[in-house]
Design a protein that fits this description.
Blueprint (H helix, E strand, L loop, with lengths): L1 E5 L2 E4 L4 E8 L7 E7 L6 E6 L6 E3 L7 E6 L4 E6 L8 E8 L13 E2 L3 E6 L1
Parallel strand pairs: 2-11
Antiparallel strand pairs: 1-3, 3-8, 4-5, 4-9, 5-6, 7-8, 9-10, 9-11
Length: 123
Amino acid sequence: VQLQASGGGLVQAGGSLRLSCAASGLTFSTYSMAWFRQAPGKEREFVAAISRSGDLTSYGDAVKGRFTISRDNRKNTVFLQMDSLKPEDTAVYYCATAPRPFSGYGEYEYDYWGQGTKVTVSS
């Protein structure tokens, strides 16, 4: 299984970015997906998760109402739309996957991880 995250970059506070994570080596529609992030000097943090069918989502408190997770099972890709970005959203963002219908906010629940894409939000 391989996960390739992309879409990170530098954006001003209040701006938007859309991250993508392309998956290969798995039957994508049978895996739940998630995004985590890790800021410098901090532990990795849950951002959002989506069920294998896309009908269930969950979000970390820090991003609720600003970020939206979605997926396209025809393209084996999960997305993270990030709006109203804040400097505290600066982090490396990782996608992760698990072979179950829906997974939660614990890192231990995920079996495979991507390499991360860096997001920097300037004030």
